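Q: Given only this backbone (351 positions), what sequence would you predict?
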């Protein structure tokens, strides 16, 4: 059995690769599927499942593309209603993977379909739990995001669901189980996440404020206290994850089109595209294209785009180093900005 956390710092996101006897499960993949396909191929293994802990708000999952490219089955927990072919598992359902098993635990609270995946090893021992946005290291998932999509799901109702999920599904599990969460510090899906990205469940029972003995009302007060408004693009990402999206290969092909200065100018005038210059701020300040905005590719690029660009359908023209263009388009697509339409050939120096 092999478990690998694939962590992406700019989104503070953890995807997971689980392999047993040539069969693979990928949990919560990012938009670009190549790393998962290549990893399985190198191990002479086949991706059997794409497991989604919930409909994500902070990024667009690669679940649909990955399933199409690998032949894998997309799996959600109970109550999920995806707009594409997927298996909606029952609470407690066992998913066989090589010589191990993955048990679906329905843990509503962060969202109503939120589920954790409990890994049972070759000897029948429960060894790891992949908690998505239900349980983080040092925190739990915020219960106010789903209400942005489904109005009757108030944060109070979701917080009470989360209390029951933690107390009936998570806390009874053995202390030596390893917790693998969906995010770490820097994510907007919680408020108090640790920079650590794994821990034992036993240590979380001791140190995580949300897992301490308390009444349901006290729990609701504790987890709602201090929540800041979520980024504006979160509800749109949820809908893309529910309904589907353009294939990443198409988005990448469109966004990496080389445009001469004349073609770039024409595209800007004809489409009213937003020009995003991804150079560092110091370089940008020395010279830039009129009406462009600067969001440096270094650091938390995607969340800043989500903050400053309010329309996910906005067409975007890019100013970037030629060897960075694919990375820029990829990082835009991770948070649902699929309408990059090309980049300035030769960068700003050619302007």
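A: Predicted residues:
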């Amino acid at each position: 059995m092999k478990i690998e956390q694939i962590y992406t710092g700019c989104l503070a996101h953890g995807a997971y690769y689980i392999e047993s006897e040539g069969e693979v499960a990928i949990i919560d993949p990012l938009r670009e599927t190549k790393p998962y396909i290549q990893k399985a191929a190198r191990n002479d293994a086949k991706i059997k499942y794409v497991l989604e802990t919930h409909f994500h708000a902070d990024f667009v999952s690669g679940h649909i593309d990955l399933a199409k490219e690998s032949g894998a089955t997309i799996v959600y927990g109970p109550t999920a209603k995806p707009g594409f072919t997927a298996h909606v598992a029952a609470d407690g359902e066992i998913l066989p993977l090589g010589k191990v098993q993955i048990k679906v635990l329905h843990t509503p609270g962060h969202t109503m379909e939120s589920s954790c995946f409990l890994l049972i090893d070759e000897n029948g021992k429960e060894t790891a739990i992949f908690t998505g946005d239900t349980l983080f290291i040092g925190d739990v998932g915020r219960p106010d995001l789903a209400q942005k999509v489904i109005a009757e799901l108030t944060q109070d109702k979701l917080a009470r669901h989360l209390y029951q999920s933690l107390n009936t599904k998570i806390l009874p599990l053995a202390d030596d189980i390893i917790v693998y969460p969906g995010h770490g510090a820097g994510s907007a899906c919680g408020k108090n996440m640790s920079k650590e990205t794994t821990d034992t469940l036993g240590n979380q029972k001791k140190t995580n404020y949300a897992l301490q003995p308390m009444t349901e009302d006290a729990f609701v007060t504790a987890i709602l206290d201090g929540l800041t408004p979520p980024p504006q693009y979160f509800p749109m990402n949820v809908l893309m994850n529910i309904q589907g999206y353009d294939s990443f290969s198409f988005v990448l092909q469109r966004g990496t089109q080389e445009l001469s200065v004349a073609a770039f100018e024409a595209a800007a005038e004809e489409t009213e595209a937003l020009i995003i210059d991804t150079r560092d701020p110091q370089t940008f300040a020395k010279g830039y294209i009129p009406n462009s905005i600067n969001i440096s590719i270094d650091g938390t690029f995607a969340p800043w785009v989500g903050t400053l660009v309010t329309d996910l359908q906005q067409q975007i023209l890019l100013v970037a180093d030629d060897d960075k263009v694919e990375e820029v388009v990829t990082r835009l697509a991770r948070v649902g900005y699929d309408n990059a339409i090309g980049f300035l050939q030769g960068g700003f120096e050619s302007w």
